[in-house]
Design goal:
Number of helices: 8
CATH architecture: 3-Layer(aba) Sandwich
Largest sheet: 5 strands, mixed
Distance between the termini: 31 Å
Number of domains: 1
CATH class: Alpha Beta
Order of helices and strands: HEEHEHEHEHEHEHH
Structural class: alpha/beta
CATH superfamily: Glycerol-3-phosphate (1)-acyltransferase
Strand order of the largest sheet: 1-7-6-2-5
Radius of gyration: 17 Å
Oligomer: single chain
C-alpha cells in the first residue's frame, strides 16, 4: 500500500469517526486478496472514501480523465489508486485500465448506476458494469451506503455532520454467465451484460443496516 494512500485512508477514517460517524457492516465478506469488483449504490462524493477506508486492502477508484491533466491533482489521484476514465466511464481506454487493475489482482470500486442519486432511490444499472464483470474473472461484492445523501448529496452545499454506514454483501459468482458469453450470439451477450447489471443492483437493494 502506497504511503500517500495509507495517509489518505487514515485521514478519511478520522473523518468517518468524528464528523461523519460511520459504521461498517460485514467487511469480513470482502476477500482480502485477489481481483475483486466492489459494486455500490452512489449517493455522494463521500461514497468512495467511505467504502475504501472501511477496508484494510487498497482499493482502486475511478476518476474523470480530465482531472489527470493537472500535474498536482493527477499525481495525487494516481497515488490514491485512481483509474482515469472518460466522463461516462464507458470508453475503451477506461475499460482497459479497469481490467488491467483486476488482472494485476487489485480491487476496484464501481457504481453501476453511473451517477449520484438525487433522492436516494436506487436507479437502473448501466450495462457497462456487466461488460466489465464478464470480461474479468473477479468476484463481485455488492455494497450499499447509507446516510451520505443527507451528509453531502447533490443538494447539500456544505457537508453536514451525519451518521453514515456501508454494508457489504456476499460475493456473487458470475462464472456461468461468463462461460455462456464466450460462445453465445452477440445479441445474447448484450442481454447478459444487462442481466449481470440487474442482478448486482438487486443484490445491492437487498442490503440493509443490521
Amino acid at each position: 500500500m502506497k504511503l500517500s494512500y495509507r495517509i489518505g485512508a487514515m485521514g478519511f477514517r478520522l473523518m468517518f469517526s468524528t464528523y461523519f460517524p460511520a459504521t461498517i457492516h460485514y467487511r469480513e465478506r470482502v476477500p482480502t486478496e485477489g481481483p475483486l469488483i466492489l459494486a455500490s449504490n452512489h449517493l455522494s462524493f463521500l461514497d468512495p472514501p467511505l467504502v475504501g477506508s472501511g477496508l484494510s486492502r487498497p482499493i482502486n477508484f475511478l476518476a474523470r480523465e480530465s482531472l489527470f491533466r493537472f500535474p498536482g491533482i493527477g499525481a495525487l489521484l494516481r497515488s490514491w489508486n485512481c483509474v482515469p476514465v472518460d466522463r461516462d466511464g464507458g470508453g475503451a481506454s477506461g475499460l482497459r485500465n479497469i481490467l488491467d487493475r483486476l488482472l494485476a489482482g487489485g480491487a476496484i470500486l464501481l457504481f453501476p448506476e453511473g451517477t449520484r442519486s438525487t433522492d436516494g432511490v436506487l436507479g437502473t444499472a448501466r450495462s457497462g458494469i456487466g461488460l466489465t464483470v464478464i470480461k474479468s474473472t473477479a468476484p463481485v461484492v455488492p455494497v450499499r451506503v447509507f446516510g451520505t445523501l443527507e451528509a453531502y448529496g447533490k443538494h447539500v452545499t456544505f457537508p453536514r455532520p451525519t451518521r453514515v454506514a456501508a454494508v457489504f454483501g456476499h460475493p456473487i459468482d458470475f462464472s456461468a454467465l461468463r462461460a455462456e458469453a464466450k460462445t453465445c450470439p452477440k445479441a445474447r451477450v448484450k442481454e447478459i451484460y444487462q442481466e449481470v447489471a440487474d442482478r448486482i443492483m438487486a443484490e445491492i437493494g437487498a442490503l440493509k443496516v443490521p
